[in-house]
Structures are given as C-alpha cells and as structure tokens.
Amino acid sequence: MYLGKGPFVKAISISTRWALLGATISAFGVLSAGVQGQNPLHITHQYSNVDARSLIGLPMGNHKTIVTKDGQLMWSQWSLAQKGRAVNFGFSEQLDGALGIRMRELHGAETRPLTASAQHLDGMRFPFVITEWKGESLGVQETAFATVAGNRDLDVVEMVVTNRTADAVTMELRLDGKNRNLPAFASGSQLATRDGKLLAVVEPASGVQSESTEAQGLTLVQKRLVPAHASVVFWIELPYEFPVTEASTLSTADHQKLLANAREAWENLWKQGTQIDLPQREKELSDFYQASVAYILLLTERDEKGELWTLDGPAMYREFWGRGEYFQGRSIELAGYLSIGQDTVKHTFGLQKDDGEWDGPVTSGWPAWDNIGGNAGSVWDYFLLTRDKDWLRTSYPHLAAAANWIDLHRQESMLPDDAPKAAQGIQRQIPWSCHPETSPQLKPGEKPYWFGLLPWSYGDSGLPEGHPFPHNTWGLYAIHIAEQAAKELGKPEDAAHFAAQYADYKQAYMTSMRRSIALEKEDAPYLPATPTDPGADVSQSLIAVYPTGLFSPNDLWVTNLLRRMRRDELEGLPTHMAWMGEGGVWPSESMNVAETYLRRGEIDKTVDLLIATLNHTYTTDAFKEEIKVDKTRPTACDHGMPVSDGITSGNVENRHGTGDMPEAWGPANLILLVRDMLFYEDLDSLHLLAGIPAGWIQPGEHIAISSAPTTLGGKVSFRLDYPQSGKMTLHLDSTALVPEALVRFPLAEGVSLRSVTVNGQPASVVSGNSVSLKNVGAPVDIQAEF
After folding, report:
1. H or E stretch including 360?
2. How far apart are alpha carbons 358 and 325 in whole angstroms?
3. Which phi and psi (to 5°) does residue 157 adopt?
C-alpha cells in the first residue's frame, strides 16, 4: 500500500496522538483521499508493535530503565563501566533489576484490579513515560522519569490517583522487585535487599490508611483512601546504587520539584542544540524530533575508561557498532552537540587493532566490515563539520591504517583456486548462520563473483554470510576518506597512494556488481545487495547513495531498486529490509530509503515514508527494529533470527518485532531526515527546504532552523516566512562560505516563482520554484512572489 495515497494520513484535529490507538482502519476510511504532501503531517502510531518497551534515564548516563507497556520498571546493573571486555553479546539483556507495580480498588470484600491502558511521553517530547491505568472507579496516571536530587541520580514514579465516582474508594498499591537479582524485602514504606541496597521508597507517609507485607515480606502493600471526585498523589523513589541506611535523606525530596527540575534540565539541553521551528500544525514532528534527541542521548554511555559509546539499544543491543556510530554519532552532531559527538568518535580510536582493522561490535568478534567505513565516516564527518585540522592530524593515522587494511585484505578474495590451505584466509567464527553465500558454476579460468572485494564476513540483516556489497560500499568510502584527508593535510604522496587503491577497488566492485546484475531475474537491472543472491534483502544497499555518494540518486540501478521496493511495500513501508524478509518492515531503515527519495526530488514519497515510519513507532515515540506484518510470507532465513527463547523472526506473530527497543537507529535517522528535509549538503552545494511540502506552511506561518552545523564548516540558520498569499521571504545566515545555495520555495503544484529579489536586486538564476545563489558568505534576504 502506497502510504501517500492512503486515506489514513489525512489531517484530523485531536489533542493527543495516542488517543487514536484504538481507531480502526475503517474509521479512517471515511476521510477524503488526496495527495499527502499537500496536507499537514499526522502521526497515529496505528501500526506500532505490540511488544513495545520505552526508556527513561539521564543523558550520557550508565543507568537505563525500561518501562514496559503495563507500567513496570526493569533495568540492568551491568553497565559498560561494570561489564569489562570479556562478556558475551547482549550482556545487559538479563535485566537484573525490577520494580513490579500492581494496583486494585477495594469495594468491601471485593477487589477489582486496575489495568494499564495507554502510554505517551510527558508533554509529548520529554523522555518521561506516562502510563494510564484504568479501573471501574479509579484512574491512575503513572509518570516515570529520571532526575538528579542533590548529587544523587534516581528514578521517580509519580502516581496521581483520581476517583471519578461520588463515593470514597480505597486503592491498594502492591510493590515488589529485585536489585542485582537479589529479592527486595518490605520494611515500612521501603523495599530493600538483604545486603542493604535500597530499591524503592514510597512517599509521603501521610494519607496511608494501612501498610503491610505479604509473600513472606517480598510484597509491600499500602492502602490509601481516595475521596469522591478527588485525587491523591504519592510517589516512588528509586535511587541508583543507594544504601538503605541513607534512606532518610530521600524523604524530604518534593516530587513536583523533581519533575520540574527534570523538565528544566531537558529544556536547557535542547536549547544548546540546533533549533527547529515548524508551524503549530506540525508540532507533532517538532515534538518527535526533540524526543528523538533525548532518546539518542539516553542511548549513550561511558565505559570503565570514561569513553563515550553510542549504543544500539538499552538491553540486547547495549553494544557498539561502527556503522551505528556513523548514523548515531552523526545525528548527535547534526542536532548541534558537536562536543558530545566528538567524544563518541574518540571512543573508536581505542577499538582499532594494531594492523588497522576497525571491526565491531567489540564483544562479539563477528567480522562485519561495514563498521570500518562507519568509523572512518564518523572521523571525517567531525572534520567536515568543524574544519579542525588538528583533529584531522590526530585522526589521520587511524584513517590511513584502515584504508591500508582494506586494500591488503582484499587479497583474501583474490587467492587462486590452488592456493595452499595455510595461505587461505580465515572464515572467522559466527555463532549462527542465516544462509551461506551461493557460488554459481564458474567457467574454466573464471574468477569468483566476489573477486577483489573485502574478505568473507558476517552479512547481518538477513544478508548471506560472504561478501555483501554494503560492506564494500563502506570500504570504498573509507579509502576515499583517507585520500581526501591526505589532500587536506598536504600529503600528496599518500593521496596518490589512496587514489590508486580506490581506483583498483572500485573497478573490482563495479565488475562484481555487473556480473551480479546478470543473475537478476527481473527485466530492469537493480542495485544488488550481494554478489550471487539477487533476491537478498536490501538493508543498507542505499548507503551507496546516502551517505557515501558512490551512486547518483537518479542512477538507473538505484531507480530500478526503488521500483522493486515500492512493488513489495506493506503498510506504506518497504519490505525485504532485513531478517523479516517479505513479511516485515524496518521503520528506522525506511528513513534511509527516504533520504534517497529526498535527493531525487520526490518530496511526496519522502514525506509518505516519514509518516508511515512514525505511524509504526510506539506511542512514546520509541522504535522497534523490525516489525512482523504478514507472518504468512517468507523470512530472510529459513529458520529465522533468534528473538527470544524458542522464538525467531520466522515464527514470531504479527505486530511483534526483533531486536532491542528503543532502537537507536530510529531516533538517529529521524533527526537526520528532518534536518535534511530542511537543508542538506551535496558536495559544496547547500539545498534549502528541499523536502518541505507546500502543505506544511500556510500564510501567516514560518519555518526556521538555527545553529545547525553543516559539513561545509560553521553553522547555518535560515527562516522562511509566508506573510501573505503569493509572497514568501527567506533570510539565510551562514558562518561558513557556501559556494552554492539552492533555495527551493515550498509551492503548490503548478505554482512557480514570478518575481525574486536577493538583497534588493533581481535574482539572476531562477527556475520553477527554486533560486540559485553563489558564494554566500554574508546574510542574504530573498523576497519571492508567485
């Protein structure tokens, strides 16, 4: 289904996004159809996964608390600072801390449980999870958030209990849990382990009718009377690594002040970054953007050395991938937090082996060569954003070593058939297999399809183990970066050396691609994912367009791949993206597809993919990796990818997912896509408003971005005003010299510019709805009539 033409994306006025979760597709069917690009964005979350989890915590903090759909709290004390290096992949998934929250209302001898019915973020953007509990007479709003009180970090759960009836009702709270897998025992209003660690304390003591314990002290039971048509408020404090002997120091904390302080801290942090200002009708997207910045900063963490890691998730994926660092670190930087981004890139230097190999994730040991290009790209991006030559000089040995490792180890795929066994490359251990790379029958003397590519490696994302093209796309990019860095640093001999490496590698890469395309069974040749498996999933294939720029977005192979992907869409998103194969979607990766459409100038499809993606997120703006849509369709692997005990991507039920949650690529790619829709770079050109549809701005409104880092160096700010029908103005200010700025005014179809002045003078280059400016180094004011 092509989302842009679907009726569910029509603008409808409601006060909260999550209120629409119960709506059915037929309810949306009564709305008139039309082109989405001409209408305000609207997020319904209607395609969210059912096994959703949310996250609270502090930015760049080690403690991350998962909030389940039913309002329970879970966390792992095995942070990076505590784990050490010799641990298994997914070390934090054990979740060795928990707080169970149950409530019921008492009617004489009868008890009726309250159930969690909905969740959303506080203010739709703060990373505080609000769970709505419903009962026959009572309703409870549970707000879980992380904050700092004095010099102590803690989670706080505020409970607002409201009685909707004309009679007073008693509410019973039941708490139990564990810390470091040790059960917590109740004493008074506290839960604590036998070794003296405080798990939770309930405040205030006033208003408690009775207090007791059950289950041999493992359950704390409190009863509070809720007057008719009134509310009572209490809160639970969960300090991090806190001795029960100091519990009295927490009792004076005021929950309302703690919540206000937590909101203020996030407001102050957001103010330090890039500012995006969209019309009020698009506030949903502004909120989602800020929530994504919060999530991506929550999913960073310092290890035992104090180095800052970008993580792919809080539990199973509490780990580092170089390719993830590229998108996650880049999103931190482009959101305006350059110093934090630099910290995450610095962390990669210590991961590089002495021969230049730059693999990951650190604790798995699986060879996945796309990580090399991801790490190199992160180093290079920071230089482009800052033009810091000292940074580049310090980083250059890492870039050069990676490029030389890539060039040397390509030999492993070029060994002759009769190479002695001792000279052959190692196929490193991978603990499980999706399916092996196929090897078509070769003619005598014919070279393997992967001749000249990187060594055999882990395919990931449903790709066969072997020689996937995305790994080689990143490898080519890493050598190109080394060449560009050498030029910047005045090292002509090095630059020539890397240029020769690049040319040889690219020839092998393109030769392999042409041979692979000959195996494709469709009429139109499309960009392949692996050398010998034309039908392989397409995860990361389009990195060949963005960010590496190896292929033009309008290249025939790219065009045909996009056509193939549109043919197989479900719920507005491409399938065949990874483990779920034909029957699942990967929301965060769909935004990488949208980046290609953006650069093709296909705005409606860009926006359609954005909205479809956001409608597959959970109501707390959290992303799941993949989501099963149609379990009757085949997955990438016959046996599937392990999801949990006995469950794989092959047998998981519809609307369930794989991987971790929240997944970091989601908020990272959302930040990048929204920023790029406002402006993006293409070599030395700056494209302004390239992805903004006409329907996103009306007379009397404006769109702006300020203090936005650019890879041209410096920062860019601009503001588009629409003061009246037929007239728009744009003010552009850049601290970097912009060789070319292409300003696209978001005009409706069939409308074109009639008169344009730049700083009071007639514009020299105007085409359709766009204006071209050269060598922008001072503030520019554009007046446009249409």
Report:
1. none
2. 12
3. -120, 110
Nearest to 332 by CA among 294, 288, 303, 387: 294
Burial of residue 354 (CB within 10 Å: 0-12, 13-18, 19+) is: exposed
Does residue 65 sit in helix, strand or coil? strand
Apex CA 222: angle with CA 216 and CA 228, to 5°? 155
Query: Do the Cβ atoms of 580 and 590 come closer than 8 Å?
Result: no
Tell me what pLDDT residue 15 has. 33
Other CB atoms within 10 Å distance of the CB of residue 32: 6
Q: 3-state SS of 211-240?
A: EEEECCCCEEEEEEEECCCCEEEEEEEEEC
Amino acid at site 741: A
Per-residue pLDDT tens for 625-646?
A: 999 999 999 988 866 666 666 6
The Cβ of residue 497 has, within 10 Å, a number of other Cβ atoms equal to 19
Q: Quick one: how far is CA 769 from the chain centroid?
A: 32
CB 100 within 8 A of CB 75: no
Backbone angles phi, psi at 473, to 5 degrees: -60, -45
From 746, 742, 738, select the one nearest 721 (Cα to Cα).
746
H-helix or E-strand spanning residue 335: none
For tokens 């001072």, name the residue.
778
Are the C-beta atoms of 501 and 407 separated by less than 8 Å? yes
Cβ burial, residue 203 (10 Å; 0-12/13-18/19+): middle
CA distance 103 to 160: 12
φ/ψ of residue 203, rounded to 5: -130, 155
| Amino acid in position 338 | L
Amino acid found at 438 = T
Of the candidates 470, 481, 450, 257, the one whose C-alpha atom is nearest the C-alpha of residue 379 is 481
- Cβ distance 464 to 530 under 8 Å? yes
Is the pLDDT at 3 greater than 50? The verdict is no
Q: How far apart are the first and last CA of the chain?
A: 35
| Model pTM score | 0.94
Q: Is 762 exposed, middle or buried (0-12, 13-18, 19+ CB in 10 A)?
A: exposed
Helix %, strand %, coil % of the chain (to 5): 30, 25, 40
Q: Amino acid identity, residue 612?
A: A
For residues 725 and 30, give the distance between their C-alpha atoms in angstroms, rounded to a whole number: 31
Closest-CA residue to 589 (of 679, 663, 677): 663
Contact between 656 and 50 (Cβ < 8 Å): yes
562 three-state secondary structure: helix
pLDDT digits (tens, 9 = 90+) for 306-329: 999 999 999 999 988 888 889 999
Tell me which amino acid residue 83 is: K
Is the pLDDT confidence value at 397 over 60? yes
Q: Which tokens in the block code for residue 525?
A: 């040749």
DSSP 4: G
Task: Kindly report the backbone phi and psi dihedral angles of residue 299, in degrees, each rounded to the nearest multiple of 5, phi listed first.
Answer: -90, 40
Give me Rg for the CA atoms of the chain: 27
State how far the Cα of 744 lies from the Cα of 64, in Å rounded to an integer: 42
The answer to whether 147 and 265 are in contact (CB under 8 A) is yes
3-state secondary structure of 167: coil
Q: Give the chain's domains with CATH numbers.
A: 70-268 (2.70.98.10), 683-785 (2.60.40.1180)
What is the number of other CB atoms lying within 10 angstroms of the CB of residue 5? 14
- For the chain, helix (H) and strand (E) counts, in that order, are 14, 35
Using the CB atoms, write b or e for 291-324: b if 16+ within 10 Å: bbbbbbbbbbbbbeeebbbbbbbbbbbbbbbbbb
The closest of 279, 288, 280 to 43, measured between CA atoms, is 288
Please give the Cα distance from 673 to 592 (Å, whole number): 8
What's the mean per-residue pLDDT of the chain? Answer: 91
Report the DSSP beta bridge partners of residue 682: 685
